[in-house]
Write a structure and sequence with these properties.
The structure is a single chain. The protein has a single domain, classed as 3-Layer(aba) Sandwich (Rossmann fold), CATH 3.40.50. The protein is built from 10 helices and 5 strands; from the N terminus they run H-H-E-H-E-H-H-E-H-E-H-H-E-H-H. A 5-stranded parallel β-sheet has the order 2-1-3-4-5, sandwiched between helices. Strand 3, helix 6 and strand 4 form a beta-alpha-beta unit. The radius of gyration is 18 Å and the shape is globular. GO terms for molecular function: carbohydrate derivative binding. Pfam families: SIS_2 (PF13580).
Length: about 250
């Protein structure tokens, strides 16, 4: 067996073990979040999803995705995307006040649900998103790492987990890297763990909707026969409230 094969196998086992822990740890919280989301769908509310830096990968996963919810509105500001400026995106996430600007533009209602993706959960932008939404009576789901937050500088005076309605913990270690196991320097696991949590939520949501007879607004792939036609009604219903669908 080659060294490369062993390395690949070791890393694969690390990831599989981590995802198993994530699923087991969040079982009860996922049920609670599925209930919140289902109630928002029944009230014709919106699921707002937000993040900064590499957490924007999670926001992209929630939006206009085959099999995903059509009632998702991504909360986004160009300054927060590393591809628009890596150093400036870090500065923007740490700047107080940006969250309020972004949420005022998006609008919030008590029958909406805000998801905030931030593994460190300590910078002004994610924490203030949660605080602003909570103040407006909107439930907040934090997708974060409680352990990483506990060891990071408390730049915003609180952590995302402390101000959220429900916490989904991706169990990411401080620094995010996972390999090699004894002294990790690479292979960040936050994107994998967070995407896994989102899909675990979608599975629960579909099951609960089936049990209660609720019709979920789910996108079809535009690259399968009939996909465009199936999505047309959803686009008509949500496009005025979700400008990113334009």
């Amino acid at each position: 067996m080659t060294t490369d094969t062993v390395t690949g196998s070791d890393y694969g086992n690390l990831v599989r073990t981590h995802l198993t822990r994530v699923e087991q740890h969040n079982a009860a919280a996922l049920d609670d979040v599925a209930e919140l989301v289902l109630a928002a769908v029944q009230a014709d509310g919106m699921i707002l999803t937000a993040g900064a830096g590499h957490s924007l990968a999670a926001v992209a996963e929630t939006f206009y995705r085959a099999g995903g919810l059509a009632c998702v509105r991504p909360i986004y500001h160009p300054e927060l995307l590393p591809m628009h400026g890596a150093i400036s995106s870090t500065a923007a996430e740490r700047r107080s006040g940006l969250a309020g600007e972004v949420l005022r533009e998006a609008g919030l209602a008590p029958h909406d649900v805000l998801f905030v993706f931030s593994t460190s959960g300590v910078n002004h932008y994610p924490v203030e998103l949660a605080q602003e939404a909570a103040g407006a009576g909107c439930p907040v789901v934090a997708v974060t790492s409680v352990t990483a937050s506990a060891q990071a500088p408390r730049r915003a005076g609180a952590t995302l987990a402390e101000v959220a309605t429900v916490v989904l913990d991706n169990l990411v270690p401080p620094g995010d890297s996972t390999y090699p196991e004894q002294a990790p320097v690479t292979a960040a696991v936050s994107t994998l763990a967070t995407t896994f949590l989102w899909n675990l939520l979608m599975v629960r949501l579909v099951d609960k909707a089936t049990e209660t007879g609720v019709q979920l607004p789910l996108w079809r792939s535009a690259n399968v026969e009939g996909g465009d036609a199936a999505n047309a009604d959803l686009l008509r219903h949500y496009q005025t409230r979700i400008p990113q669908l334009g």
